[in-house]
Amino acid sequence: MGAKYQRTEGICLRRVDYSNTSQVATFVTPDRGCLPFMAKGVKRAPKKGIKTSFDLLCRYELVFNEPRYGTLYNLTKRELIEDFRDIRKSLRAIICAYYAAELMLNFTMEEEPCRELYNLLIEVLRLFGSGEKLGLGALLLEIEVLRHHGSLPVFSICAECQSPVEDRKQAFFSPAHGGALCQHCREKQRAGARGIPAYTPHLVLLDRLAEHRPSRPDRINIDLRQVRSMSRLTRHMIQYVLGKQLKMWDYRLFEGPERLRKRGRH
Questions:
Q1: CATH fourth-level superfamily of 1-83
Q2: Residue 85 CA to its chain's centroid (Å)
Q3: Which residues pair with 24 in a beta bridge?
Q4: pLDDT given for residue 204 in this prediction
Q5: pLDDT value, residue 245
Q6: Taking the domain 134-265, which CATH number applies?
Q7: Mean pLDDT for the stretch of residues 18-31
C-alpha cells in the first residue's frame, strides 16, 4: 500500500543540517500547527551554484507523508510561495522577523491548528518588509500568541473585582492574577503577586487591539512610545507563562538602526 501524501503550506522557523544533502526543518502551518520535517536531499543542487536548501521565514507549499518511525514528517516536495525578501534589507526588520519565529516556536504545537495566528504572521512579516511599524507588528504577535495559548490577560477591567480600569487613577498589571489590577485589589495581594505599574490608557488600548484582532496592521497608527509601553506588559505575561525570557529580547527591538549596528560590533 502506497504512502498517503498530504498537502499544506508553512513558514520555515528553524532548519538544521542533517547531512551533506539533507535538512531537518520546522514549519508553522495553519492546519497542523508546528511540524518538524525531514527533507532528504534538499541541499543537493541540480546545477553548480543553484541554492536549493530552505530559507528561514519563507512561505512554502509542502507535500509530505506521516512519519512511520520517530516524530519527523517526511517532506517529499516543496514550492516557494512567498520569500518576504524585503525583510533582509534591514537589520531591524531581520531581528523582528527572528523574534516572530521565536514566538511561534514557543507558542505553537504539533497537530494544533493555528490559522488565525498563521495569517497574522504573514501580514506581520509583510509589514516588517516595508520597514515600518516594526514594534507594532511584534506587539500584535505577542497578543495573538497569548490568545492562542489560552493565556491572554484581561486589560480593561480589574482581574479581581471586574471594575473598569479606565475609571481608576492608577492601575497595575499582574500575570499571576491574569491581567490588570486596580489599586485597591493590588493592596490585598501578596507582595510577590502585586504586578507592575501600568498606564491606564495603554491597558484600554491593549484591550481594543486584542478585541478587534486587526488583520491589516499597516493601517493602525500608534505612537512608538505607546507600543513600547504596551509590549512591556505583554512580555511580562509571556515571561510568566513560559517561565523564561526570550532570547531575542536581548536585541532590543525598539532601538534605532545606528544603536543596533553598534551593538553588533561588540
A1: Nucleic acid-binding proteins (2.40.50.140)
A2: 19
A3: 16, 38
A4: 94
A5: 96
A6: 1.20.1440
A7: 90
